[in-house]
Amino acid sequence: MKKTSKYLLLLGMLFLLSLCAAMLLVIVIDPFFQYHKPLDGINYTIDNQLSQNPGIAKNFDYESVVLGSSMTNNFDTNLFYDTMGLQTVKLCYNGAYPKDIHNIMALVQDSPNKIEEVFLGVDIFTYKATPGMVAYAIPEYLYDRNPFNDVYYVFNKDVILDYIILPHPNTPINEMYWFWQGSTYGKESVLATYQAPTEVLPALSDDYYAENITENLESYILPYIRQMPDTKFTVFFPPYSVLYWYSRYADGSLEAEIQGQKQIIETLLQYPNVRVFYFQNDFDFITDFDNYSDYTHFSHEMNDYMTECFANGTNEITLSDYEETLDTMKEWLLNQDLSKYLGGSI
User: Fold this and answer.
1) 265: pLDDT strictly greater than 50
2) What is the pLDDT of residue 182?
3) Which of 68, 111, 166, 338 has the greatest count of CB atoms below 10 A from its CB?
4) What's the CA gap between 92 and 209, in Å, rounded?
């Protein structure tokens, strides 16, 4: 019995030592950056937006952030420094809804960094959605500052195996979340994932999405604009291909979405620390499928171009010209035979 007790005690001690070693390994390497910035000489793979963005927001040094959906993944943050002198991180989420922006902005606002500028990509199809929706449920224990629930992080076998023990490439900070290097562009790639409309539905009323847009702005975006008056908010509308608008025409939401964009722009431009850029009316670009990997995702050259525009003011719209800009956009779309870009009609 004594030998058995000693054996069990030894096993228990080894188990505890293993737990302590695992915890120490995670805390020291910290692949999700919950406790510190990346350590020199260690490879960090940054490929998990839900789990790594909060640590980046809490502990990296930065002066500006890029927020938004996958439309913002391909920004090169080095170019933000080269053109505007801003040390920038991307905190994007694929399919981000306004509440996703709110979740990460709470950590940005609470960080010790002095935030000079927030670059916010706006996708109308998420702002018109039911308020409170998120792209994915977040791991709450990584977004709060409660050390006691960090057990879900420091004793996480997937973190230890996938991000510490197994060999993994280092991700340069400016390249995090890039997908353009593995993407194929052109009409064949775009049409391979595009579901063409089969009928045209009646148009929705212009104000169909007004209530949802108002609530999404008031609940998740405007509080930060108001609470951070010394921070510039640069809002931009990225350019989807013409096939996106063909689908909106067919499902009856095109005019309601354009009106929704007007509502967002007019609301945001009431604040002196907001400026707005509009890229969806680059008709040569949105009709050239060589610029796209699918019907919404564009090449990284557009991300580079948008960055340069933020620096030099090209494509900026104001309260004096935003209505004309969007009316021209709507008129062009409604006067096009959008089906011709598929080679047929419905």
Assistant:
1) yes
2) 75
3) 68
4) 24
Where along the chain do its domains lie? 28-342
Record: fold of 28-342: Rossmann fold (3.40.50)
- The contacts of residue 313 (CB under 8 Å, 6+ apart) are none
Query: Which is more confident, 339 or 47?
Result: 47
> Model confidence at 22, in pLDDT bands (50, 70, 90)?
confident
Contact partners, residue 305, CB within 8 Å, separation at least 6: none
